[in-house]
Amino acid sequence: MERAGFDQKDQPLFPTADKQRQLTSKRMTRNDVFRMLRRRAKAVGLDEVVCCHSFRATGITEFRRAGGSLEKAQWMAAHESARTTKLYDRTEEEVSLDEIERIPSI
After folding, report:
1. At residue 69, does pLDDT exceed 90?
2. Are the C-beta atoms of 14 and 27 separated by less than 8 Å?
3. Under the phi-then-psi rule, with left for phi > 0, alpha for psi from -120 to 50, and beta for the rest, what region is 72?
4. Which residues contact 33 (CB under 8 A, 6 or more apart)?
5. What is the CA angle 15-28-59, rounded to 5?
6. Does residue 105 carry a pLDDT above 70?
7. Predicted structure pTM score
């Protein structure tokens, strides 16, 4: 953390910026993060709904695709129930080439 310029333990990892675009000692709120995320998504042309939970879903999905267990993903996400973790797991939403080839050509 020191190498990244975070030498004080009480310093926020994601600080706010003032009107002159200078970093402050205040931490970003959830709303600050959400608004920034929506602006950035819109700037790159993402029309779908993007929110902070999108990162959680991506992390859990990529962990599971790499062979991680649901139980370990549940532990990492600090979920009490595996059912909650499954809500974020998008691995079942993939469509394989074999599945597409099952569609008869017209």
Report:
1. yes
2. yes
3. alpha
4. 14, 52
5. 100
6. no
7. 0.60
